[in-house]
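for the recovery benchmark. tokens below, seq after
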């Protein structure tokens, strides 16, 4: 038996649960924060659950933490003392290890302390026995979820939680003069899919305006052909590595095998997007990678995604499908040309 807390993007928890039900027969679910955070009880042990999740990672599951300990909260100072004591008693889990503390609160939780106050207190507890409190690249994460009247605490390496950010909420610093927020999606895709955009030479960006994705690829030193009938941001136009084809992508004439990366963020119907990407396949080198967003326009996202993947798999291997933290009504696919 094992207990877990799962998190998805807002309103997508029912789809994460549907995927988990298929993956883990016998699992049961209770909602902790509407449409977003849920408790899962599973007849299988932890390692077996993790192995299945690794093998077929659910698209809509952004973060998962085991529940190793739990305690009732009363809304008084005794909550913090109880939590410190619990961490002291669990010290064998992270003695000598680089340890990060992640805290999330349900808005209705009786646990009143802010994440920063709680973290400061627990960091002091960790230092009592030489565990090193860190933010970046921890070996172990103490992940705490404050539900209405319970604290749920789990200990695990970040890879077992699917993310090294609290609840999988990836935060990037907004930069001065940033062309669009969409840039964060492509940055998150790079990390989630284990890519390095600087490894590619030449990209085609379909639906590129105003140019957040294009600007990131240019920063990484790629030559970029941006296709969009709309205008690109003026700050990009004189870039020596950028070609803007100001037209509909279906009219674009592209060189054969000219690109080793295709990115597409068109906010279009998923079936039309698939057709367009398939029509451009001859312009991609063998083994080229593609990052495409899939709009979830109607009520059956899992079915839509299945149909899109089936279509695209005539020319591409689907490496991973994931709803990223920065995806709104969409998911992101990582494809590799066959
Ligand atoms: C969500 S925006 C893309 C944002 C972009 N990724 C960024 O980082 O700034 C979608 C774009 O797709 C473009 N688009 C829609 N249909 C298109 C088509 N058939 N061919 C080319 N561009 C298209 C729209 O003009 C719009 O600029």
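predicted aa per position
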């Amino acid at each position: 038996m094992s207990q877990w807390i799962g998190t998805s993007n807002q309103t997508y928890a029912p789809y994460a649960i549907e995927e988990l039900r298929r993956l883990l027969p016998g699992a049961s679910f209770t909602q902790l924060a509407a449409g977003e955070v849920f408790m899962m009880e599973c007849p299988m042990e932890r390692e077996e659950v993790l192995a299945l999740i690794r093998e077929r990672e659910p698209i809509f599951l952004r973060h998962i933490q085991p529940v190793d300990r739990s305690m009732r909260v009363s809304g008084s100072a005794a909550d913090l003392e109880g939590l410190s004591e619990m961490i002291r008693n669990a010290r064998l889990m992270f003695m000598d290890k680089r340890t990060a503390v992640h805290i999330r609160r349900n808005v209705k939780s009786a646990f009143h302390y802010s994440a920063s106050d709680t973290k400061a207190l627990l960091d002091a507890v960790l230092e009592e026995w030489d565990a090193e409190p860190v933010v970046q690249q921890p070996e172990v994460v103490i992940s705490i979820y404050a539900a209405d009247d319970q604290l749920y605490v789990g200990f695990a390496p970040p890879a077992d939680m699917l993310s090294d950010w609290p609840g999988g909420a990836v935060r990037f610093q907004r930069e001065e003069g940033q062309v669009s927020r969409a840039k964060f999606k492509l940055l998150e895709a790079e990390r989630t899919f284990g890519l390095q955009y600087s490894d590619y030479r030449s990209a085609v960006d379909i639906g590129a305006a105003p140019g957040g994705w294009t600007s990131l690829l240019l920063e990484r030193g790629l030559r970029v052909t941006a296709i969009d009938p709309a205008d690109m941001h003026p700050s990009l136009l004189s870039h020596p590595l950028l070609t803007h084809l100001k037209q509909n992508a279906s009219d674009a004439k592209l060189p054969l095998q000219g690109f080793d990366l295709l990115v597409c963020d068109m906010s279009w119907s998923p079936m039309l997007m698939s057709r367009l990407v398939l029509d451009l396949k001859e312009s991609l080198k063998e083994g080229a990678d593609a990052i495409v967003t899939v709009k979830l326009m109607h009520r059956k996202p899992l079915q839509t995604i299945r149909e899109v993947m089936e279509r695209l798999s005539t020319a591409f291997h689907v490496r991973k499908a994931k709803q990223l933290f920065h995806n709104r009504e969409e998911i992101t696919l990582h494809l590799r040309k066959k």
